[in-house]
Design goal:
Largest sheet: 5 strands, mixed
InterPro entries: ATPase_NBD, Gcp-like_dom, KAE1/TsaD, Peptidase_M22_CS, TsaD
Family: Belongs to the KAE1 / TsaD family.
Bound molecules: adenosine-5'-triphosphate, magnesium ion, fe (iii) ion
Domain Gcp-like: 26-315
Shape: globular
Number of domains: 2
GO biological process, one term: tRNA threonylcarbamoyladenosine modification
Keywords: Acyltransferase, Cytoplasm, Iron, Metal-binding, Transferase, tRNA processing
Number of helices: 10
Number of strands: 10
CATH class of the largest domain: Alpha Beta
């Protein structure tokens, strides 16, 4: 079965074809709207919707061509139906539903966070090759721009929330911290690049909520700590890099401590990590060491599939379509959507 996946929940237009018979991707393409939103310092929802309208059909044509397929070769469609920006979601849902109707093929509404969560199961982890992707049960760390969650995954579609952020998401903390030190939008990857040049231990920030039990997170206070450190520093390039390093170490440490605690609580040694912050090099290193030290394993998507993409939506949708799940022809999206409400496979 060849499934066309469409992602339009925010500021990335992503399209991919996943082939269930081959067990692999045929092609994927991504168009990022970053340059469009940069002058506003954040995503402007109406501009995002309009740009998805402009880019989605050309991207679908390109992806089909790279897959060696005609539009009629599509066996099923998968699209992000939420959570996300309602106008942006409606573009992907409208196109996917229309194609499904015209081709008389099944289509499935995919939960964006389930897409992220299942991405590490799509292909071999390039940094841990030869073992094959992990299978549930495992613990998932979802660290993206809008979410920071620890989830016990008993099976595909059986998700139990173990803990989550009480305020900012980890990616949001990276972005806001970058902004207050004058780094260009979008700041997360930029801050990580600064941290690569920074010296460890010059600035030490707290590890929020690690000194008491529980699996929730809080990252908004860290931002304030950075603000004060930056204000009181000489504001040189090396100060910025050292502060970035101190911030990154604090976030990575906090996430690692909570992941280990979550594995203990779930009685499990397999961790999967997904979402944009999962592209962070130091986080990857740290979590790999933690998992290996306890005789377990950790799996990440390739960095390009940590941030938003169509491949994860094609894959998550393919699993559900293969299990016979699909929906009627109405175009419905859910800007807010609880992942625990999803049916099991
Ligand atoms: P959500 O999936 O929760 O709706 P989103 O789709 O905006 O949010 P993603 O696309 O998964 O989030 O990830 C984007 C986030 O990842 C941004 O906050 C960005 O700063 C962060 N990010 C990307 N690369 C890195 C990196 N190397 N280090 C740290 N953070 C990063
Ligand atoms: Mg994005
Ligand atoms: Fe995302």
């Amino acid at each position: 079965m060849k499934v066309l996946g469409i992602e339009t929940s925010c500021d990335e237009t992503g399209v991919a074809v996943y082939d269930t018979d081959a067990g692999s991707l045929r092609a994927h393409a991504l168009y990022s709207q970053v340059a469009l939103h940069a002058e506003y310092g954040g995503v402007v929802p109406e501009l995002a919707s309009r740009d998805h309208v402009r880019k989605l059909l050309p991207l679908i044509r390109q992806t089909l061509q790279e897959s060696g397929m005609e539009v009629g070769d599509i066996d099923g469609l998968a699209y992000t139906a939420g959570p996300g920006l309602v106008g942006a979601l409606l573009v992907g849902a409208g196109v996917a539903r229309s194609l499904a109707w015209a081709l008389d093929r099944p289509a499935i509404a995919v939960h964006h966070m389930e897409g992220h969560l299942l991405a590490p199961l799509m292909e071999d982890d390039p940094e841990d090759p030869g073992r094959g992707p992990p299978q549930p049960p495992f613990v998932a760390l979802l660290v993206s721009g809008g979410h920071t969650q620890l989830v016990a995954v008993e099976a595909v579609g059986r998700y139990r929330l173990l803990g989550e952020t009480l305020d900012d998401a980890a990616g949001e903390a990276f972005d806001k911290t970058a902004k207050l030190m004058g780094l260009p939008y979008p700041g997360g990857p930029e801050l990580a690049a600064q941290a690569e040049r920074g010296r460890p231990g010059v600035f030490r920030f707290p590890r929020p909520m690690t000194n008491r039990p529980g699996l929730d997170f809080s990252f908004s206070g860290l931002k304030t700590q950075v603000l004060l450190a930056w204000r009181d520093s000489g504001k040189t390039d090396s100060d910025r890099a050292d502060i970035a390093r101190g911030f990154e170490d604090a976030v990575v440490d906090t996430l690692a401590i909570k992941c280990e605690r979550a594995l203990d609580e779930a009685g499990c040694d397999t961790l999967v990590v997904a979402g944009g912050v999962g592209a962070n090099r130091r986080l990857r290193e740290r979590l790999r060491k933690m998992a290996v030290d306890r005789g377990g394993r950790v799996s990440f998507p390739r960095p390009a599939f940590c941030t938003d993409n169509g491949a994860m939506i094609a894959f998550a949708g393919a699993l559900r379509l293969q299990a016979g799940q699909y929906e009627d022809a109405s175009v419905r999206v859910a800007p807010r959507w609880d992942m625990a409400a999803l049916p099991a496979l």
